[in-house]
Amino acid sequence: MYSIGETAKLVGLSTYTLRYYEKEKIIAPHRNANGEREFDEQHIAWLRFVIRLKATQMPVAQIREYTELFLAGEHTAPQRVELLQNHQAFIQEQLQNLASVESELQYKIENYEKLIATSVK
């Protein structure tokens, strides 16, 4: 079992964020006899998954929805798949947008490099 501070260090989040995730019902740590939060390996694995979802810009509300579905049991698998598929479509759109912007930036960089090279001569 890990304390909230140890868990924060392990997963690279602040204790504030862990408390926020608990308030949002994204994580439910155990409580010891003193009422202190305790996290186990399953909590750590779940938090790492949540971090990856956040890295893809999934809103907390959707993460909470996914968590609720997960905790409700296997019969929610179709809803979880739909939620993840919708988010995947969002990610694919973002990737296409980034590729377009990257291409534009590359064009501008090449033009500036040519301009600089000719002005140095």
Structure notes:
This protein is mainly alpha-helical and 121 residues long. It has one domain (2-120): Multidrug-efflux Transporter Regulator, Chain: A, Domain 2 (Orthogonal Bundle), CATH 1.10.1660.10. Helix content is 74%, strand content 3%. The chain is built from five helices and two strands. It has helices at 4-11, 15-23, 41-55, 60-72, 77-120; strands at 30-31, 37-38. A two-stranded antiparallel sheet has the order 1-2. Strand 1 (30-31) and strand 2 form a beta hairpin. The longest helix has 44 residues, at 77-120. It starts with a helix and ends with a helix. The mean pLDDT is 95.
Keywords, separated by commas or semicolons:
mainly alpha, Multidrug-efflux Transporter Regulator, Chain: A, Domain 2, two-stranded antiparallel sheet, 2 strands, 3% strand, elongated, DNA-binding
CATH class: Mainly Alpha
- Provide the structure class: mainly alpha
Helix content: over 70%
DSSP, total strands: 2
Task: Specify the CATH architecture.
Answer: Orthogonal Bundle
CATH topological fold name: Multidrug-efflux Transporter Regulator, Chain: A, Domain 2
What is the count of DSSP helices, taking H or I runs of 4+ residues?
Answer: 5
Strand order of the largest sheet: 1-2
How far apart the termini lie comes to: 66 Å
- Low-confidence regions: none
